[in-house]
Structure formats: C-alpha cells, structure tokens
Amino acid sequence: MKVKPDLSFWKLFNISFGFFGVQIAYALQSANISRIFATLGADPHQLSFFWILPPLMGMIVQPIIGMLSDKTWCRFGRRIPYLFVGAIVAVAVMLMLPNAGSLGLTTQVVMWGLTGTMLFGLMSLMFLDTSINIAMQPFKMMVGDMVNIRQKGLAYSIQSFLCNAGSLVGYLFPYIFTFLGVKNTAPEGVIPNSVIYSFYIGAAILILCVIYTTVNVKEYTPEEMEAFGREEAEPIPSNATAAVAPKKTSISYTFISIGLVQFFCWAAFMYMWTYTPGAIAAQCWGTTDVASEGYQAAANWVGVVFAVQAVGSVIWATLIPQFKSYKMAYVVSLLVGGAGFISILWVTNPYVLWISFLLIGAAWAGMLALPFTLFTNALQGNPKMGTYLGLFNCTICLPQIVAAVLGGPVLKMLTPEGGPAPEVDMLVIAGVLLLIGAACVIFIKENK
C-alpha cells in the first residue's frame, strides 16, 4: 500500500492558512450579532431567537458539503471549490450585514414582531453563517485527505493556531478601530462605524487568505487517493491473535456518547455569545440602554474578553497533552470553564473579567480538540470521512438550536416584573451546563 508522504511545515501551513480568514469572519459574527440586533431594536428576550439560524444552517449545510465533496473532483480539486464559493458568498454578506440600519428600511413591525431592518439582518445572518460553514468544513477535510497519520497532530496544531489567531483578530477589530478614533456610537437603529469597518476589513482578509490557499495547495487526484488506500490509525500486527487485538468501540456509540457531552457544552457557549454584551453592560457599565456610549463600550469589551478567552484556549491546549487520558482532560477542561462562567455573577470590574474568560478558554480548548480527536479515532481513516464529520457537526448545531429556542422563555422567567432582563443569569446557567457536560464524559469509551 502506497503511503502518503511527509509534507514540509509550509505545505501543512498552506493547507490551513485560509482558515485564518474564515475564523476572522466567524469571530466577528460571534462577538457582534447580539450587539447588531440589539442596536436594530431587538428586545433582550428576543436575542436568542436570532441565534437559531447559524446552527440550523450549519446542521443542514455541513453534512451536505461533506457528502458532496467526498464525491467531487474537478480541475480545481476536491474540497477547494467548496471553500472558495463559500468565501465569495461570505464576503458579499459581510459587506451588507452591518449596513442593515443604514439602508432606509422600515422600522415598523413587518412580521413575527420583527421590523424590516431586523428581517434584512436576519436574512443576511442566514447567508453569512451558511457561507462560513461551506468555507470552514473543507479545511478540516483537506487535512484528513492530504496528511499522513504521523503528521496529523502537527497539521491540526497548525490549524488550531490559525483558528485562535483569526479569532483574536476578529474579536479585537471593533476595539482597535475605536482606539484609532473611528466612531463607536451612531444614531438609534444604526450600526456604529467601528463595527462596519471591522466587517469590511475582515471580508478583505478572508478572501485574500482563501485565494492564498487555493493557489498554493494542490489536492491529490482520485487515482492518488486510491493508491494511498485506507490508512489505519494503529494497524494490528499480523501475528496478533483475536484475544489480544484491541476492541473497537462502535462509531454509533461514540457518536452518541460524545454528542451527549457536546449538547451541554455548545448550549452553554450559545448563551455566552447571546448574552455576554448585555451582561457586561449591566454588570460593569451599569446600563441596559443599547444607544448609550456605555453599552457600546461594553460591546467593544466583549471582543476583548472573547480574545482573552482565545488566549486562555491556547494556553490550556498546551496543557491537555499532559493528562493521562483524553477523558480526564475533557472533564477538567469543562469544570474549569464552568467555574469561569459562574464567577461572572460577582464581577463588576471589566478587567477582572479577564480571569473569568481565561478559565472559559479552558473549556473552549477542550471542546475544539477532544471530541474531534475521540471521534476520528473511532473512524480510523474511514473513506467517508467528510460525510461522517459533516454529520458529527450536528452534535454542535442541534444543542445551539435548542438553547436558542429556550433562551428567551428562560430569561423571561428570571426577569423581575418591570425590571431589566438579568442576562448575567444566563451565563451562570451556561456554567452549570458545562458542569453537567463534565459529568457526562463518563459515558464516553476511548479507542486506545
């Protein structure tokens, strides 16, 4: 059987470099969607409903992209055509979404309790997340296609570094533009220029990064892939007997047990993305007025603490290999992250939030690395890798949809009559969800 050759560091880097730009777009979406819709007039109890679309589109799109790209080959490659088309659409939407409040659309309720501006923003968000999902998934698949088992750890480490670097840049853009003198406030219902410029620059970086990967990466042909054959993560020696051969946990059981943990983890982070702007504004700036300078300053600070979370994730990722098992690393990561969420309840100094979000970064590092590692170990080079990874994405998307549906009613239950919505309580709930997820790790069985 022909074996995939070792690739140089720069070839591994080129495979994932476009992911840097995609992650900038994803970070801008994560940190600013609640801010955008709150500025357009959404009530805090409505915010979670706007977050239903991103995971819903991911759950629909990623399995389809995985299945189609498994069967695709053209002059441009197998996965690259999908990531390039996704990037083009994402760039177009990133130029439109932050201008939703500046297009002269109606501010009267049109349908479902939403105004014309909010409906335009909602449709833009749907296309943005769809295109990001189309562009993001092929990068993971290309590593599986082009990198041999010996180098996969390095390849995914490079991809993880570029992912966190892109997140840092995307999260900090509005804060940096405000520091440079770009206006961070705007008339009621209009998105500030600091956010608009962030999306513009993010779109430019995204397309340049994807073009770089497209030009510098040549995927293996179908004939080459067939020659490489199916690589096993740990081949059993030919003289091994059935009594000593390692038992492999079924893919379906691994899928379900990891999916149970994923349910609580991704529901928790859905509440973080949704309610952090309002929680920080109320806790540290003492305001719930979305048009106020304090609220917009707090919204900028969300990007800062999300960047701190990314730094915490990088730091914790270096500690994960020190654990004796993936399961133990998973449990500790979620416990530390849960403590970080719950601690926000008592924080009133914005700089102290850095400690909370460094701890939350531990959970994020565990969530990015460990479920994927445990599941791909169960797959062991299965030729339908793209299809399986697309389906596995449902364990990320479905819990976010459930959390988004329940978020508004839960927050309404917690809101005192005539008082402001206690959005910080939703972050405490996020912490509790991570603790439950840590307890559920016990059901996962590792393939040794």
Explained architecture:
Helices cover 71% and strands 1% of the residues. Helix 9 (251-284) runs antiparallel to helix 10 (293-319). The protein is an all-alpha fold and 448 residues long. It has 2 domains: 1-226, Growth Hormone, Chain: A, CATH 1.20.1250.20; 248-448, Up-down Bundle (Growth Hormone, Chain: A). The model is unreliable at 231-247 (pLDDT under 50). The chain starts with 8 loop residues before the first helix and ends in an 8-residue tail after the last helix. A hairpin with a 2-residue loop joins strand 1 and strand 2. A two-stranded antiparallel ribbon has the order 1-2. The chain is globular. It has helices at residues 9-39, 47-50, 53-70, 80-96, 116-146, 149-179, 193-216, 222-228, 251-284, 293-319, 326-343, 353-379, 385-392, 394-414, 423-440, and strands at residues 109-111, 114-115.
Topology:
Layout: H1 9-39, H2 47-50, H3 53-70, H4 80-96, E1 109-111, E2 114-115, H5 116-146, H6 149-179, H7 193-216, H8 222-228, H9 251-284, H10 293-319, H11 326-343, H12 353-379, H13 385-392, H14 394-414, H15 423-440
Antiparallel strand pairs: 1-2
Helix pairs in contact: 1-5, 1-6, 1-7, 1-9, 3-5, 3-13, 3-14, 4-5, 4-7, 5-13, 6-7, 6-10, 9-10, 9-12, 9-14, 9-15, 10-12, 11-12, 11-15
Descriptors:
single chain, 448 residues, mainly alpha, Growth Hormone, Chain: A, 2 domains, two-stranded antiparallel sheet, 15 helices, 2 strands, globular
